[in-house]
Automatic annotation (TrEMBL), chain A:
<keyword id="KW-0547">Nucleotide-binding</keyword>
<keyword id="KW-0067">ATP-binding</keyword>
<dbReference type="GO" id="GO:0009898">
    <property type="term" value="C:cytoplasmic side of plasma membrane"/>
</dbReference>
<feature type="domain" description="AAA">
    <location>
        <begin position="16"/>
        <end position="167"/>
    </location>
</feature>
<dbReference type="InterPro" id="IPR025669">
    <property type="entry name" value="AAA_dom"/>
</dbReference>
<dbReference type="Pfam" id="PF13614">
    <property type="entry name" value="AAA_31"/>
</dbReference>
<dbReference type="GO" id="GO:0016887">
    <property type="term" value="F:ATP hydrolysis activity"/>
</dbReference>
<protein>
    <recommendedName>
        <fullName>Septum site-determining protein MinD</fullName>
    </recommendedName>
</protein>
<dbReference type="InterPro" id="IPR025501">
    <property type="entry name" value="MinD_FleN"/>
</dbReference>
Automatic annotation (TrEMBL), chain B:
<dbReference type="GO" id="GO:0032955">
    <property type="term" value="P:regulation of division septum assembly"/>
</dbReference>
<keyword id="KW-0132">Cell division</keyword>
<keyword id="KW-0131">Cell cycle</keyword>
<dbReference type="Pfam" id="PF03776">
    <property type="entry name" value="MinE"/>
</dbReference>
<dbReference type="InterPro" id="IPR005527">
    <property type="entry name" value="MinE"/>
</dbReference>
<comment type="function">
    <text>Prevents the cell division inhibition by proteins MinC and MinD at internal division sites while permitting inhibition at polar sites. This ensures cell division at the proper site by restricting the formation of a division septum at the midpoint of the long axis of the cell.</text>
</comment>
<dbReference type="GO" id="GO:0051301">
    <property type="term" value="P:cell division"/>
</dbReference>
<comment type="similarity">
    <text>Belongs to the MinE family.</text>
</comment>
<dbReference type="GO" id="GO:0042802">
    <property type="term" value="F:identical protein binding"/>
</dbReference>
Length: 283, 83
């Protein structure tokens, strides 16, 4: 496993892998994914922090069930109004997991390159993984979220506009990330296909995993099925990966394992075989 | 093939249409992805110069940069109006 070495202002060579969860298009499942991937990494004993880059539209706190514990935020830290320790929220379920919430009141421009770098460098000293939950779009906020990334999880829905926007964001990763600008090894790209409905794929109504892989041409990290469990989990502030009995939860668990280099066969990609009666009545 | 599948297969496969459309647009957009930032400005200025001599529409000037290992080629295509 290759790791990125950051030399901080204190001269310490710290090891943290920076992963951005991005998509271009809005509402495809970035925050859902950030919550589950960071929880999954932390549950495996890796000290993990998940940062909400969606300044002005904070939501990760709700999905992680810590909205009432937010005192200081990312922008407060950047502007020197609070220390990182004051702003970080420790997860109540997994003790190696921390959340850095976004500011609800500031503008996206409050995230300066220097400010973000300083925070990431400081986090790199003590964390193994830094997961960055990107806002939608390809503007400043999204560019800040991906700038320092070593790896990118490109969240895509099997739908035309989402696939096209994912390709746009891949172009930005390849030209505007720090790794691209510095001429280093490129950001490692992963495709995460979410809200997948195998029944509709079999009916020819939805792009298949193979179709999307062929168009985007990046390695597949996982397929998360469309699942009612996701809404139920977010209602309660539980990252869906903790719903271990659910298909979506297991699919996220597989994705975390693959991210860490394990080989896992892809699941939940074919329609459930229906019995005679349900076939008769559903058509 | 069951009775129901027979009717189903008569419906258009919209996923195939989506795939074909995506392949075309994504290939097109990738082609423009690596173009330098100054290109639109350059195109406008070239247009202004050419217009001193011939009246042409905005889309009559195509400017592209083709990069390969050894060199970059600035490709300029100007379509002149018929007279
Ligand atoms: N696998 C899934 N099955 C069903 N619903 C899902 C799934 N993944 C995400 N959703 C739902 O999609 C909606 C958007 O999800 P989420 O907030 O994670 O997207 P986002 O990409 O972070 O959005 P934004 O661009 O606004 O930040 C939510 O209502 C979520 O519950
Ligand atoms: Mg979000």
């Amino acid at each position: 496993m290759h790791r990125f070495v950051t030399h901080t202002h204190k001269g310490i060579a710290a090891l943290a892998k920076i992963i951005v969860v991005t998509s271009g298009k809005g509402g495809v499942g970035k925050t859902t994914t950030s919550a589950s991937i960071s929880t999954g990494l932390a549950r495996r004993g890796h000290k993990t922090v998940v940062i909400d880059f969606d300044v002005g539209l904070r939501n990760l706190d709700l999905i992680m069930n810590c909205e009432r514990r937010v005192v200081y935020d990312f922008v407060n830290v950047i502007q020197g109004e609070a220390s990182l320790n004051q702003a970080l929220i420790r997860d109540k379920r997994v003790d190696t997991l921390y959340i850095l919430p976004a500011s609800q009141t500031r503008e996206k421009e409050a995230l300066t390159k220097e400010g973000v770098e300083a925070v990431i460098n400081e986090l790199s000293e003590t964390f193994d993984y830094i997961v960055c939950d990107s806002p939608a779009g390809i503007e400043h906020g999204a560019q800040m979220a991906l700038y320092y990334a070593d790896e990118a999880i490109v969240v895509t829905n099997p739908e035309v506009s989402s696939v096209r926007d994912s390709d746009r964001i891949l172009g930005i990763l390849q030209s505007k990330s720090r790794r691209a600008e510095m001429g280093q090894d490129p950001v490692k790209e992963h495709l995460l296909l979410t809200r997948y409905n195998p029944e509709r794929v079999e009916k020819g109504e939805m792009l298949s995993v193979g179709d999307v892989e062929e168009i985007l041409a990046i390695p597949l990290l996982g397929v998360i099925p469309e699942s009612q469990v996701v809404l139920n989990a977010s209602n309660q502030g539980t990252p869906v990966i903790l719903e271990g009995d659910s298909d979506a939860g297991q699919a996220y668990e597989d994705a975390v394992a693959r991210l860490l280099g394990e080989e896992r066969e892809h699941r939940f990609m074919t329609a459930q075989k229906k019995g005679f009666f349900s076939r008769m009545f559903k058509g | 093939m069951s009775f129901l599948d027979y009717f189903r297969s008569k419906k258009t496969n919209t996923a195939n249409i989506a795939k074909e459309r995506l392949q075309i647009i994504v290939a097109h957009e990738r082609g423009h992805r690596d173009q330098p930032d100054y290109l639109p400005q350059l195109q406008q200025e070239l247009l202004a110069v050419i217009r001193k001599y011939v009246q042409i529409d905005d889309d009559m000037v195509q400017v592209e940069v083709d990069r390969n290992d050894r060199c970059s080629v600035l490709e300029l295509n100007v379509t002149l109006p018929e007279h």
